[in-house]
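Colleagues,

For the teaching module next term, I've prepared a clean inverse folding example: a structure given as tokens, and then the sequence designed for it. I'd like students to try predicting residues themselves before seeing the answer, so please don't circulate the second half yet.
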């Protein structure tokens, strides 16, 4: 896998109920980690998101578990947009141990913008595209 620079990093606390009987963070909890970090990314980077009208939904996700996370670990979720289409964008995320920088898990997903009132997909707002490209430091729009 290619080395990637992440400009968005969010520390997360591991809760008591995140750990299963085997003593490590349960695999289902990772989705909560990724959801929390991508919501924070969008809220931080994209202007004027109206969560009453706008939804950003997962249409594809793949996860690579690389190492176990234990309750005593300190973790961050790093997030980067890697491509932008008309109605969708691709995300790469990873959970890292903040003491060792070991990558514990990698997630790739595709998100689609959705109009909650119309109940249909909709194009990404130009201001969001610009904000994401500015934040990531490059033009991420997919060429047609």
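(Answer key — instructors only)
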């Amino acid at each position: 896998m290619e080395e990637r620079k992440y400009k968005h990093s969010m520390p997360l606390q591991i809760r008591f109920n995140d750990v299963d009987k085997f003593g490590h963070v349960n695999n289902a909890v990772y989705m909560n980690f990724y959801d929390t970090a991508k919501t924070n990314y969008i809220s931080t980077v994209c202007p004027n998101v109206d969560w009453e009208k706008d939804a950003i939904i997962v249409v594809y996700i793949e996860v690579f578990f690389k190492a176990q996370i234990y309750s005593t670990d300190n973790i961050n979720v790093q997030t980067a947009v890697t491509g932008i289409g008309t109605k969708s964008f691709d995300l790469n995320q990873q959970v890292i141990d903040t003491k060792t920088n070991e990558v514990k898990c990698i997630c790739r997903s595709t998100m689609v913008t959705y109009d909650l009132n119309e109940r249909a997909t909709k194009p990404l707002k130009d201001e969001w595209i610009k904000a994401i490209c500015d934040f990531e430091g490059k033009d991420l729009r997919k060429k047609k």
